[in-house]
């Protein structure tokens, strides 16, 4: 770091967004994936600014202990946000502020009127990880605030008690009408729910209920506690950010084969925890008795693009209900044809190809009649 800082010619702030990676030390595959992840996340600042602070807690720069083009690009996107912070924000973003001060003094030439001036004399409390307090399950029910209905009933009873007599006939009639109306509404709601449930159950399992979509693997690493699993950070087009996906592909692909590549995801399977890590999707592959191959998307796709079988471009379930066995019912009919295209085989009907809104096909590399899952 000292040698690089001494010889590095600072970039101007205007040049920072398009920093030349060749001016920095070369990156390994894992660092390239991490760089890609931060270049994506930084476009969503300030939404993901806290993730940057957490990441810098244990590293000097974005990718570790050496500077990279990622530091310069992310710095240019962070500076306008940090310039609005006051000393009250120092505790929340202390690691970002330390990093900004380092970058603007070594890597980026920032004009004096734009340079972030940090008051290092401000006392910042010791950093403590907050623990969520458990709700007291034994809290007395009486402590809960009364609902609007309860409050009104209470006021009515109080008024009657103050008058010192029983409710008159008109009041009793009104109460009976309200009770009958509430009972009728409850009955109608129950009937509607039952009808909706019956309608849902009447729809036979089919591929339109499965959420196939394009994903981009930003970074993949070995699972720390499972030799057969990779853990990937995948952009699936979700507003809340990338997903974490565990895949049992260690025996079939080297780690570098999973870095920065497009895949097809099954995105609405019920999340499962695999050796302590929650996995929220599945990477679609084709296989036979000897090998496994990715289902490769066509060129020009982007994360989150919908993928579907011809004739089944419906609205997928938000999360597949394991009790309905939808995946188990349709998956055995997924395969590949002589052209290596992924298909859905239907008895007495033409094969339906896996496709997108452009009508492109999705293929495996070499396996005919593959088991696709």
Automatic annotation (TrEMBL):
The keyword tRNA-binding applies. The keyword tRNA-binding applies. GO terms for biological process: formation of translation preinitiation complex; tRNA aminoacylation for protein translation. Residues 172-201 form a coiled coil. Residues 129-138 have a biased composition (Basic and acidic residues). GO terms for molecular function: aminoacyl-tRNA deacylase activity; enzyme activator activity; phosphatidylinositol-3,5-bisphosphate binding; phosphatidylinositol-3-phosphate binding; tRNA binding. Keywords: Coiled coil, RNA-binding, tRNA-binding. Residues 206-308 form the TRNA-binding domain. SUPFAM superfamilies: GST C-terminal domain-like, Nucleic acid-binding proteins. GO terms for cellular component: cytoplasmic stress granule; eukaryotic 43S preinitiation complex; methionyl glutamyl tRNA synthetase complex. Residues 129-172 are annotated as: Disordered. Residues 139-149 have a biased composition (Low complexity). This is tRNA-binding domain-containing protein. It comes from Wickerhamomyces anomalus (strain ATCC 58044 / CBS 1984 / NCYC 433 / NRRL Y-366-8). The lineage of its organism: Eukaryota, Fungi, Dikarya, Ascomycota, Saccharomycotina.
